[in-house]
């Protein structure tokens, strides 16, 4: 008997199952917004779409999908990623909080690049990336 490759629908199902079984990365979205025109809003939606648990912190309390946006940081455990949607000037007040989370990585989305925080994070063994969370999710690099 010869091997027959699965039909395209079978490959899609296999890929979908693999994605669902892959490790989910608990993520803090810093600079979260309930405004659908903001990239942080889209990031929350996509992170949830991919099954990643999300903690969102923004200026105003609100809700995006099933995620409550809090306006004060709270201690969290097992954080894989902090994704930044704040400009460097507005990040300073969160330095201690971010470092206390002990994330595996910090993603500095476009406009959030911050050499000072990158240096502090790298000194603590935290990986830093200047990248786009949405692109990373869309290309399976998250």
Distance between the termini: 40 Å
Mean pLDDT: 90
Unreliable stretches: 1-10, 12-21
Quote the beta fraction: 15-25%
Query: For the largest beta sheet, what order do the strands appear in spatially?
Result: 3-4-2-1-5-6-7
Number of helices: 6
Characterize the structure shown:
- With 142 residues, the chain is α/β, with parallel strands linked by helices.
- It has a single domain, classed as NAD(P)-binding Rossmann-like Domain (Rossmann fold).
- Helices cover 36% and strands 21% of the residues.
- The protein has six helices and seven strands, in the order αβαββββααβαβα.
- The protein has helices at 8-21, 39-49, 88-91, 95-101, 115-123, 133-138, and strands at residues 27-32, 54-58, 62-64, 67-70, 81-84, 105-108, 127-130.
- Mean pLDDT is 90; it is low at 1-10 and 12-21.
